[in-house]
Automatic annotation (TrEMBL):
It comes from the Bacteria. It comes from Gracilibacillus marinus. InterPro entries: Phage/GTA_portal. This is Phage portal protein.
């Protein structure tokens, strides 16, 4: 794959490695990962909802100065993430795939490619050329003789790559007992509790399927009150089936030679509350409510979903990208990556108007930004910002009131 060439540009193999020392004494080799729970349609639906929402984010490289004024930087990162962080994916594709990998493995690795640029003063900087989500089958953490940490990726194709860990964007969920990986003690998803619920749910659904099939199987026995050879029995059975097919009145005529015994089929179905209870346990595990899953949610329900499930992922994305991309000096002067949730199409019309009123009165939104919230196209001259005169700078309140008092 083309990733082989991209990775080789920034990889040096002239190191003598040993496995990194974990605090708990375990060997830092992690395989990727079981997929048992992901056969569940409810699990897939939950992850899909989360991944779809995260894919709407807008990553931006910003800089915050000492006055807390934020500006968008003209950088290679913003150029890449405006439309396409690599030649294989759009920004939406990239974010969606990253979140799927994160939930499947509780770890997601992103490899940034870059060129080293030297300016006229001899200063070197990284010019990023792409960001690639990785799907390794095994991950090992190594150290060289100086104690520098490296990560070795092994892929199903048999290819292996080793990189400085600081140059890899690493996202984790359920980061607890393992020193470097999300998930359980072995750096893998610990789905034992959820798997029990899914197994019960699957057993009930299989029972439901069998109940339905049993109600459509043998419904009765035809007793033929004479001694017949096989050919005559076959003829009698065909005669009986013909009567069944041709009967429209619901009354089946028979002669004295045959008796029909009805078999009462009474399948026991699982009640709705039990099935709903099991599905709800799965939904709670992923922080997705039923209204969010079905798309029939209120503004308040979406806000709860954002704060409960999405917000921590948004924060994690920004911190992980910033930590990897920028040097300590660049971070100190206010550089960071922020994933903005700018799309407000989920809001009701009344709430959109309320946002326009409040933000508009403060001069935060331009006319075109207000139109965009309402779903309208921009207009010429729409970059104008207006502000209400009903607000005053608090630093001059006393002076303003004294002047008004003298005028009266």
């Amino acid at each position: 794959m083309l990733l082989r060439n991209l990775v080789n540009k920034n990889t040096k193999d002239n190191h003598a490695f040993r496995h990194a020392q974990m605090i708990n004494g375990s060997l830092p080799i992690f395989s990727q990962f079981g997929e048992d729970i992901y056969a569940s349609d409810v699990v897939q639906a939950c992850i899909n909802v989360i991944a779809t929402e995260i894919s709407k984010l807008r990553p931006r490289h910003i800089r915050t100065d000492q006055e807390e004024v934020q500006t968008i930087v003209k950088s290679s990162f913003n150029r890449l993430f405006k439309f396409s962080p690599n030649e294989l994916m759009t920004t939406r594709d990239f974010l969606e795939k990253t979140i799927w990998m994160l939930f499947l493995n509780l770890n997601a690795f992103i490899y940034p490619t870059y060129d080293i640029i030297t300016d006229s003063n001899g200063n070197k900087r990284k010019e990023y050329t792409g960001f690639y989500p990785l799907n390794p089958s095994q991950v090992e953490f190594l150290q060289d003789s100086t104690g520098k940490l490296f990560v070795k990726f092994s892929f199903q194709s048999g290819i292996e790559y080793t990189h400085p860990y600081k140059d890899i964007i690493h996202l984790r969920k359920q980061f607890s007992v393992n020193d470097v990986m999300g998930g359980g003690v072995n750096g893998q998803p610990d789905n034992a509790a959820l798997l029990k619920v899914l197994q019960i749910n699957d057993s009930l659904l299989q029972g439901l399927e069998k109940s339905v099939k049993s109600s459509m199987a043998i419904r009765g026995i035809l007793k033929i009150n004479t001694m017949m050879d096989d050919e005559k029995q076959q003829a009698e059975r065909e005669k009986f089936e013909a009567k069944l097919k041709n009967n429209e009145s619901g009354i089946l005529p028979m002669d004295l030679k045959g008796e029909y015994y009805d078999i009462k089929v009474d399948p026991k179905l699982v009640d709705k509350d039990t099935l709903d209870f099991l599905d709800t346990k799965v939904l709670k595990n992923y922080g997705v409510s039923l209204p969010i899953l079905t798309g029939d949610f209120t503004d308040e329900q979406y806000q709860a979903f954002y704060e409960r499930t999405l917000e921590s992922i948004v924060i994690s994305l920004g911190q992980a990208f910033s930590k990897c991309i920028f040097t300590d000096r660049e971070l100190d002067v206010g550089n960071e990556i922020v994933f903005y949730q700018k799309d407000m199409t989920y809001l009701s019309m009344s709430n959109k108007l309320e946002i326009i009123k409040i933000a508009g009165e403060q001069g935060i939104l331009s006319d075109n930004e207000k139109l965009k919230i309402l779903g309208y196209s921009p207009i010429e001259g729409g970059e104008r910002r207006t502000q209400s005169l009903n607000y005053i700078n608090r630093d001059i309140i006393d002076e303003y009131q004294l002047k008004r008092g003298k005028m009266q």
